[in-house]
Amino acid sequence: MKTENKNEERDRKQKNIDSELENSEVKENGEENKRREHGEILNEQLEEGKAVFGNSPGSIALCSFTAGLEIGFSFLLMCSVFSFFTGKLAEDTIFKLLTFVYPAGFIFVILGRSLLFTEQTSLLSLPVLNRKQSVTSLLKLWSLVIFGNLAGGCLMAALLIWIGPALGLFDLLAVEKIASHVISFSPQVILISAILAGWLMGLLSWLLASATDTVSRILLIIIITGIMAFTSLHHSIVGNVEVFAGLLSSPKITISDYLIFESVALLGNAIGGVVFVALLKYRAFVYNVD
């Protein structure tokens, strides 16, 4: 009897939540520049997440693979900048300068509507929190997105370590230096760093929903990803390109280094996006529903 009452109460609560979300639609008739309410942003994020679940596996895989390729342009610029300033500036200064080119790939991916795991982490969790999708379906979708991102990134890494030196843009020492910098921390440090990066990427997805024009969206991407670059927070998809390129081009980077980094970074990014953005933002809305 108690179980039935709990289930009835849970269903009633869910109906109230869904009703509130349906009422939180984007304002029209000239009100698009008005400040967006929490419920409006949550409803938009929820609908976008549900739309991704509705796409075919082939479409999801291709969009994810494309994102993995496109994010590689950040790595291309990073290696080029690193090589250009090597011998002219101190190495730690050069790493800080990479902040200015790091956002490029993210701009291409996000504005181009490709599927990047860290941007989609919190977004795809919302339909599960709203009881419209199961945890199993979420894990399957995450797996597909991650596989596409990693495959595209690995292919781009292999291409860049050939074309970069061939064009005289950078040498393989720059690739080794960047990869070594990424994996130079303990797994515990990489995990916490990746959680913070996942938090920022989930927050970026949330903030972009409140942006009203392309310029604002680009500035938000630059700010969030610039923070990640300047503070050396670990991003699993960019890091995949960085470390895999190092693995292919330098004996100092081992397969063990790559696998440990990638698994820890993916876990941290997922925790950051789900717990600190999706769960907290969703629960903040739910607490206002009777």
UniProtKB/TrEMBL annotation:
<feature type="transmembrane region" description="Helical">
    <location>
        <begin position="218"/>
        <end position="238"/>
    </location>
</feature>
<dbReference type="Pfam" id="PF01226">
    <property type="entry name" value="Form_Nir_trans"/>
</dbReference>
<keyword id="KW-0812">Transmembrane</keyword>
<keyword id="KW-1133">Transmembrane helix</keyword>
<feature type="transmembrane region" description="Helical">
    <location>
        <begin position="138"/>
        <end position="163"/>
    </location>
</feature>
<dbReference type="InterPro" id="IPR023271">
    <property type="entry name" value="Aquaporin-like"/>
</dbReference>
<dbReference type="GO" id="GO:0015499">
    <property type="term" value="F:formate transmembrane transporter activity"/>
</dbReference>
<keyword id="KW-0472">Membrane</keyword>
<feature type="transmembrane region" description="Helical">
    <location>
        <begin position="258"/>
        <end position="280"/>
    </location>
</feature>
<protein>
    <submittedName>
        <fullName>Formate/nitrite transporter FocA (FNT family)</fullName>
    </submittedName>
</protein>
<dbReference type="GO" id="GO:0005886">
    <property type="term" value="C:plasma membrane"/>
</dbReference>
<feature type="transmembrane region" description="Helical">
    <location>
        <begin position="97"/>
        <end position="117"/>
    </location>
</feature>
<dbReference type="InterPro" id="IPR000292">
    <property type="entry name" value="For/NO2_transpt"/>
</dbReference>
<feature type="transmembrane region" description="Helical">
    <location>
        <begin position="60"/>
        <end position="85"/>
    </location>
</feature>
<feature type="region of interest" description="Disordered">
    <location>
        <begin position="1"/>
        <end position="37"/>
    </location>
</feature>
<feature type="transmembrane region" description="Helical">
    <location>
        <begin position="189"/>
        <end position="209"/>
    </location>
</feature>
